[in-house]
Amino acid sequence: xxxxxxxxxxxxxxxxxxxxxxxxxxxxxxxxxxxxxxxxxxxxxxxxxxxxxxxxxxxxxxxxxxxxxxxxxxxxxxxxxxxxxxxxxxxxxxxxxxxxxxxxxxxxxxxxxxxxxxxxxxxxxxxxxxxxxxxxxxxxxxxxxxxxxxxxxxxxxxxxxxxxxxxxxxxxxxxxxxxxxxxxxxxxxxxxxxxxxxxxxxxxxxxxxxxxxxxxxxxxxxxxxxxxxxxxxxxxxxxxxxxxxxxxxxxxxxxxxxxxxxxxxxxxxxxxxxxxxxxxxxxxxxxxxxxxxxxxxxxxxxxxxxxxxxxxxxxxxxxxxxxxxxxxxxxxxxxxxxxxxxxxxxxxxxxxxxxxxxxxxxxxxxxxxxxxxxxxxxxxxxxxxxxxxxxxxxxxxxxxxxxxxxxxxxxxxxxxxxxxxxxxxxxxxxxxxxxxxxxxxxxxxxxxxxxxxxxxxxxxxxx
Length: 463
What we know:
- By secondary structure, the protein is α+β, with helices and mostly antiparallel strands.
- 28% of the residues lie in helices and 31% in strands.
- It has helices at residues 2-15, 74-78, 266-284, 317-329, 345-360, 383-389, 391-413, 415-429, 436-442, 447-455; strands at residues 34-41, 47-56, 62-68, 82-90, 93-94, 98-100, 112-121, 127-136, 145-148, 153-157, 162-163, 165-166, 170-171, 189-199, 203-205, 209-210, 214-215, 221-231, 235-239, 241-248, 251-258, 291-296, 303-306, 309-312, 338-339, 433-434.
- Strands 1, 2, 4, 5, 8, 14, 16, 17 and 18 form a nine-stranded mixed sheet that branches. It has a five-stranded mixed sheet with strand order 20-21-22-24-23, with helices on one face. The chain has a four-stranded antiparallel sheet with strand order 6-7-3-11, with no helix packed on it.
- The longest helix has 23 residues, at 391-413.
C-alpha cells in the first residue's frame, strides 16, 4: 500500500509540473578511460619527469590514439612552459609518437600527439598505452603552469598528455589558439593514481582523495598519491606552502598558501570559499566533489578551474568574493558538466559568470545594453574567432554577454522555474561533454531562456 501511494503521489507531482526532491545526477560513463599518472618534480621545482598509463575502451572503431599537450599552446608556451613526449608504447609494444603543431608556435613542441595502433580496433575493445614525458615550467609564469623561485612554489594544471576523446564524436583535433583561456576538451576519466614525488618537506596538492605520504624512490623525496573516481583534468601544486584544512559545506577544503605570505589572509580565503560553496549549492545542487584543493600560484593574475581543484593568483581581498564564486561555479560548469571549451567557450563561462553574479548579488552589473553592437549575437563563436578579436572582446562577448543573457532569462522565466531547470540540466548532463543542442533541450520548456540565448547567438534559431 505504501509503495502504491508513493507511486500515485509521484505521478500527481509530475502531472502538476512539480518535482519530488532534487534530481539525481547521472552516473559517470561506465567505459570512461582509466589513468595512472606519475610526476617526479625536480629539486629546484623547475621541471617534472612524468609517466602516464591510459586504459581506454572506445565507443567507435579507432586506428590511433590522440592526446593533447596543452602546455605547448601559444599562451603557456609563451611563458616558458613546454611538454615533450619522450617515449610511448601501445599494448606493451613501443611506438613512435607523431607530434603535430596543431596551433603551436614555431619552435615549440606540438600540441597534438598521435600514437598509431598496430591494427585498428573495434568499438568496445580495450586499448592500453603508456607515455613518458618531460615538463618544463616557466619562471614566474602568468599561466596554469609555472614556478616561483622567490616563494619556493610550483603549480601545473593540464600538464600531461590528455586523451582527446569525446564519446559519440571521436577525436578532437582542433588547433590551439593564441589567446589566454581554456581550450581543452576531455571525457571524465577514472584517476587510478596520481603519484607526485617531490622534495622531502614540500607540500603537495592534487585531485581527489589523498593517501598518506610515503618515502619516495630516492633519498630526500616523498611520494604523495591521489585517487579520484571521475575527473576530466588534474592540477598539482608543490613547494613551500602552508596548508589549511577544514570542512566547508560537506566538502573537505585543502587550502595551500605560500609560506612567504599572501595579500589575503588564509582564514579570509577559507571563509570566502565556504560562503561561495554554500550559495552555489543552493543554486545548482550538491558540490560535485568530496575534496576541494585550492592553491595560490603567486605570479598568476586570475583564477583557473579543474575538477575538485582551483588555482588562484595572489588575489587582494576586494577582488576575492567574485573571483572565488566564479571559479567555484566552474565545478558544476566544465568540471561536472563538460563542454568543448575551444568550440563552445560560452557553455561554461556564461553559466559560471551568471552564477558569480547571483552568488554575489551583482546581477545589475550585467546588462545586454552594455555589450557593444559589434559583439551582440556573437556569444556562440568559437575560441578561434575570439583569438582574432583579442582577450578584451572575448571577455565582454562571452563572459559579460553570456551572464547578461542568463540574468535576463531568469527574470523573465521566474527565478524558481529557472533555478529548477538549471539543476535538472546539471543532473541530466553530469559527467558528459555537452553541446549547445544539449543546452537547448535542457531549457526547452522555458522559451524565455532559449529565446535569450538564441538572440545572443549561442543557440541555433528554430527550424
